[in-house]
Amino acid sequence: MLEVTDLYGNSEPLTNHSILENNFEINTVPDLNFTVYRKYNERAFDMITEKCVITEVESKEMYRIEMFSCIGSGDTIGYNVQCLHIVKDLNNKLLTSELKGSQTIKSCMDFIVSGTKFTYEILDSFSSFDFESLGNDFALNVLLNNILVNFKAEFEVTNYHIVIRKKIGIENAFIFVDGFNINKLSFTNDSTNLATRISGDGKSGDNGNPIVTTTYTSPNADIYGIIDAAKYSDDSTTTANLKARLKETLQDVPDISITLDYVQFTKGNIHKKKVERVGLGNAGYVRGKNIDVYSRIQKITLYPQSTKTPVVSINSVKGTLSKTLAHLKEVKKGVKK
User: I want to staple 202 with a disulfide (CB 3.0 to 4.6 A). Which of 115, 212, 317, 334 is the partner?
Assistant: First the structure.
């Protein structure tokens, strides 16, 4: 069941609707999509208008209608409804001023939520970041594109409350085994952008020339040799931040993308042992033919109030490649024997 609240604060239950599709991705605004017909919801149907609020009653999370399209006609008229989480309301605020210089993540969050309904808490420690300019944009854009990026943080949201962490989710949350609790396991190993050395420029002086330059060489150069990446340049990056930014930017392992489907999400033995905890940002093992990696759930589609199993995407498995290569080499040795 859903609850619809119109722009005047009137609420009605929305009881007959299609299976809900609830999409979550790290550092992205969640969305909720569904279809509803007038003949099953005569009172609530007419309350569905632009910007009204839809509450998913299981999670009690609020979403705002951003788009709806009419389908059918006469007695079968209905709407396909697309909603974004209420955190999107943070973009109702345009920041017409800016912050400059060294800032804490707290000062940045105070800056974007001031005068709004939103509250926040910061659960980890973060170093300050030196901004050339922060602001002159919509508040949510600043959160997603500047604050989280520069402080290397992630966020979770419960209606109007934002939680900032270094990393969301939990470790050792699941073990996915091909042929046991998952199927259709596939992975792609893409080394197109692999490089082991990167040079970069930071802030420029009055003459326009960079005053901050440095080079970072990955330890993986011992494996792949020296492979240069494209030069990095960011006029807002200081000496203190540049080396860390280069290390973060360099793709020094192949990009491994994994997709999988469940077959025993609620029935498998792993679930009964409470090892299998599937949630955004959670990390665990994916094991199958020629692959054995420890990785994170980057994206998940849930189907609340239904028995339909979630769809999981595990992308950009970085930092586990050495283990994977070692495993593949052992497999290869075994085949030769």
Answer: 212
